[in-house]
Amino acid sequence: MQFHQLSNTVPIEFGKQFISFITGDHNADRISLKYFHDQETGILYAEVNFGRLAQGPPGHTHGGAISAVFDELMGACCWVNGHPSMTAQYTTRFFKPAPLNIPLLFSANIKVMDGNKINLEAQLTDADNQKFAEARGLFISQDMETFKKMSQMNSNASEQLREMKKH
Length: 167
Description:
By secondary structure, this protein is of the alpha+beta class.
């Protein structure tokens, strides 16, 4: 284990229940990600390796790829801590370019909850604890019925599209 922060965590299979832009089939050429949850602190970690197809500046990770992982990580942090939610807003601050093809560690934790508003902080570091970026996010918790309805709407739209293609 390269990151000492992961010693008291459990692996999480987040993203297997649905299609996700970030998680799902791991692609070593783009983004390879594994989640780990510290159940005592609620911190969610993601060990990530950005491959050559995630390049922005030569030899370094595209800022959009980093931001996308932050967004999913903070949302996943809400979910694994019992708060199904969606992103309302987030910001990313970059300190230095993150190199490709080395293991990096993202971490996110809930800082403040106010009603259905969840404020999170996250960071991206390497094995030497060098910080590459940080993010702050506001997420809005939802009841599971909202997500079920969204899933049904998506299924109905897909069916309608298939029917239209037949004619």
